[in-house]
Design a protein that fits this description.
This protein has 207 residues and is α/β, with parallel strands linked by helices. The protein has a single domain, classed as Rossmann fold. The strands form 2 sheets. Strands 1-3-2-4-7-8 form a 6-stranded mixed beta sheet, sandwiched between helices. It has a two-stranded antiparallel ribbon with strand order 5-6.
């Protein structure tokens, strides 16, 4: 498992940044780094994770976590990531748009958060989240080559809705349009400035 450690102050609430792009060092990684960097400058502890660097399986719907309260089907890199999710009061999800939606890595990550739900035996089941009611905040961002936000399809919603169901308040989202080539987002100071504003806002929100 490869987790990118960022030198952070020892005090302050923690923020976990999750990148879902297979393109290492590209626009997703750049945006995520800018968001976390601004939060860190405000005193937050941050950690950046690239999902394609991890080895983990998608959820197979075995329902073992309903009985055990945690995912026991797999012993993979998500096992190490779960306590970091619990510890973090802030969460950042950033990914490119793949076919009007999130990438396969972000989808698999979100599905593996199923173990944070509590269910009853009714049909359909009532549920609650183990992460709810704890003041958790999140920001999300997506990068798209096209010029119209509608061409992002369900990307932002596919991140926002599960996070809200888990108990995170998604305080802002950043759609980034008309950028494709790796790293070109760095040539757009207005986008970088907006990413840093979100990082500052998130840092303040979890302080």
């Amino acid at each position: 498992m490869v987790l990118e450690k960022r030198e952070s102050p020892p005090s302050g609430r923690s923020i976990l940044g999750i990148g879902g792009s297979p393109r290492k060092g590209g626009n997703t990684d750049t945006l995520l780094g800018q968001i976390l960097g601004a939060a860190q400058e405000g005193g937050a502890r941050t950690e950046q994770v690239r999902l394609p660097d991890l080895q983990f399986q998608p959820c197979v719907g075995c329902e073992l976590c309903r009985r055990n309260g945690r995912c026991t089907r797999f012993d993979d890199d998500m096992t190490e990531l779960y306590p970091k999710i619990v510890e973090a009061k802030g969460l950042v999800l950033v990914c490119p748009v793949h076919n009007y939606n999130v990438t396969a890595w972000i989808k698999a990550f979100i599905d593996r958060l199923y173990c944070f739900y509590n269910f009853n035996d009714n049909r359909p089941s009532g549920w609650s989240s183990k992460l709810a009611g704890q003041g958790r905040k999140a920001v999300i961002a997506a990068v798209c080559e096209q010029e119209d936000k509608k061409d992002m399809g369900f990307t932002l919603e596919a991140m926002r809705m599960p996070l809200e169901a888990l108990g995170f308040e998604v305080i802002e989202e950043l759609p980034v349009l008309r950028i494709f080539e790796a790293g070109r987002v760095s040539e757009h100071p207005e986008v970088i400035a907006e990413a840093r504003r979100l990082g500052t806002l998130l840092g303040e929100g979890v302080a």
